[in-house]
Amino acid sequence: MEKISPITEIKGIGPKTEEIFQKIGVYTVGDILLRFPRTYMQYPPMIVPEDLNEDTFVDGKIYGICLRITKSPFTKNTRSHKTITTLTLSGIEMVWFSAPYVKNDLRAGKVMVFYGKLYKKQNHLHMDQPKYFDPEDYANLVDVYLPIYSLTKGLSNETISKAVKQLLNEENLFQDYLPNDIRKAQHLCEYNYAIKQIHFPDSMDSLIDARRRLVFDEFFLFIMAMRYQNKLREKEKSDFCFKDFSFVEGLIKKLPFELTEGQMKSLMEIKSDLEGSYKMQRLLQGDVGSGKTIIAFLFMAWASHLGYQSAIMAPTEVLASQHYETFQNYCKEFGLNCPVVLLTGQMKAKEKRESYRIIEENPSAIIVGTHALIQEKVVYQNLALVITDEQHRFGVKQRETFSNKGSAPHILVMSATPIPRTLGIILYGDMDISVIDHVPSKRLPIKNCVVGTKFRPKAYEWIKNEVKAGHQAYIICPLVEESENSEGENVKDYTKTVSEYLGSDIKVGTLHGKMKGAEKVAIMESFLKNEIQVLVSTTVVEVGVNVPNATVMMIENADKFGLAQLHQLRGRVGRGDAQSYCIFINTSTTKTAKKRLEILNQSNDGFYIASCDLKLRGPGDFFGIRQSGDLAFTLADIYQDASELQAASDAVDSLLESDPDLMNIEHKALKYEMETSIAKQIERMNL
Ligand code: ADP
Ligand code: MG
Asked: Measured from the CA of 546, which atom of ligand 1 is nearest?
């Protein structure tokens, strides 16, 4: 087998499974191996019932409990002809549904380890559908890290890990493209070893080594691609003529608020780029709520005024349609008469055609959309400015994509990911940077609290009162639905619980990433219109959403999120004039978790928060926590891996100095890898 072999060569993968894999962009054997686990599962150490006491027991946590079976399980039939099997041992009630065979497995006298989530129910402990193991088998499972992959409908974790296991038994499938001297100098492990260990780590140490190698590669290829291309490209001349800025000044006078100093400074920097003779390539960085959208709008209105088209590209349908509405409102308020057009992938064919038509016929249209703006068959007229909001920068490449569509616009990238200057220069080396350094000062600072689960009823009361006062609330849960592999609250069940608690007068809505685009947009619109008062959601609302009337953000299992992410979530409130509140529910008992969350309590400064988080985390502490938001690396995290980022940057510099065109035969594999990685990224962008 080779890296480029079709996945049907793997035992157990037929045309049907192949089709599902293709939907998530997996075509070849190599593609499967490069889809790294999302996290790892470890069976908890075996305990005996005596180990459980007030101090150690955590409600809802997964345990492996060793129990002697003293009696036979009891099975009864339900009215719908299903079976319920129960067994209570040492005060722990265990229940299996539709699994009559359990009775045969669990014979009195045996000792077994029961594995599952343990709940407190009235006065006793309870486990639903526990798995059970021979104590010896279980002992072998503890200490092993089992990979957990991102799944899609029809694809199980089992299928993926089996396929991966099979592939890892093959001879080395990959060539190590990293020049030997770099690998040695950086003390990085070999590529095939890293691939093996990232899927099935022998130990925590080897996992850390593997990850470090792959993180280095990610940064290295990214920076390499950026610098290599940049070298090929001179500054491009601009053929757009931006003039008559007094038009924008006129709009600013009509704003209901005064622009902050940071907004003004950024505005002037962008203005002078547009008026200059070269194409703009600029990053506008500003913390959540700093007011980037209005800046975008002002320039798009200016373009329109001058007879140019402009487009803003958002990472999600929800955000795109929100911008669409905001921009329409602005146009109304400012008395502007320019067409605002929406284009997203989820729109109906007929609606899309209508948008195409408007775009084709209106050389001064303000265009709002998602990636559909580059994918679909849009024909732009005079497209002078493209703004990307809250997403992975694509700088040069993005412009190229637009160039292929017949226009080479100015590019403005907006991001709320806080980065220190030194990292910014590495990551955005090909861009100029503007920073909005403060949020509008008149706003009341958000009041925070970090509390345990006991506080929930109080939090609901708080929400109730805020809703009574006319406001709205978000509740964030880490999961969409109950999951075997991860602990934490899920949006579906939580919605039910909260609705019951809040009563029928308060409308509770649900939002998560598995919903269809149009559905999501509809829910978000109802929330914006206050038809829904409480929105139970996953982190899909993390990016950019603006509902100024929302004043409470309650985050369940806050300990499961990265601090920067929590900061982004918190940024969804405190956007209007009213006092806002953020309630972090901490479900972890560790001191570090508490310490981490306390940081959010103390500070509202995104960069400070991200850098503190880094200091508090240990080397093995990277599961499931991702910081970088819109900087879409697969494994790498710019804060946590800041030193790798620097090292990769230095390595690229010295390599390109010695071999600027990558002509050296030793660098052939590297050049190829870099080119395919660029192609891959573009493909991912278009998925
Ligand atoms: P972000 O930078 O996170 O994208 P937004 O652009 O969504 O932030 O702005 C958040 C809110 O702040 C919006 O409701 C916007 O109208 C408001 N806003 C923007 N600039 C100012 C300002 N200078 N003073 C007061 N409010 C502002
Ligand atoms: Mg925004």
From this structure: 7
Nearest to residue 359, comparing CAs of 297, 436, 304?
304
Q: How far apart are CA 317 and CA 515, in angstroms?
A: 11
- Return the percentage of the chain with pLDDT > 90, whole number: 54
**Residues having CB within 6 Å of any atom of ligand 1:** 257-260, 263, 286, 288-294, 416, 440, 544, 546, 548, 575
Q: What is the pLDDT of residues 595-635, one digit of tens each?
A: 889 999 888 877 778 777 666 665 445 544 444 445 567 78
Ligand 1, atom 20, lies closest to the CA of 291
* Residues 251-269 pLDDT 10s: 999 999 999 999 999 999 9
Structure tokens belonging to residue 580: 């806002």
Q: CA 562, 595, 619, 608: dihedral to nearest 10 degrees?
A: 60
pLDDT in tens, 176-223: 999 999 999 999 999 999 999 999 999 888 999 999 999 999 999 988
Protein residue closest via CA to atom 12 of ligand 1 = 291
The minimum-distance atom of ligand 1 relative to the CA of 443 is: 25
Query: In degrees to the nearest 10, what's the CA dihedral of 600, 605, 608, 613?
Result: 30
Q: What is the pLDDT of residues 71-101, one digit of tens each?
A: 999 999 888 888 999 999 999 999 999 998 9
**Which of 251, 254, 263, 294 to mutate to test ligand 1, by most ligand atoms within 8 A of the CB atom?**
294
The answer to whether 243 and 357 are in contact (CB under 8 A) is no
CA 400 to ligand 1 centroid distance, Å: 31
Instruction: Point out the least confidently predicted range of 173-182, 243-252, 361-370.
Output: 173-182
Best CA proximity match to 236, nearest among 48, 408, 386: 408
pLDDT in the model for residue 546: 85
Closest ligand by atom to 546 CA: 1
Exposed e or buried b for every residue in 90-125, given b needs 16+ CB within 10 A? Answer: eebbbbbeebeebbeebeeeeebbbbbbbeeeeeeb
**How many Å apart are CA 336 and CA 329, to the nearest integer?**
10
Q: 269 alpha carbon to ligand 2 midpoint, in Å?
A: 19
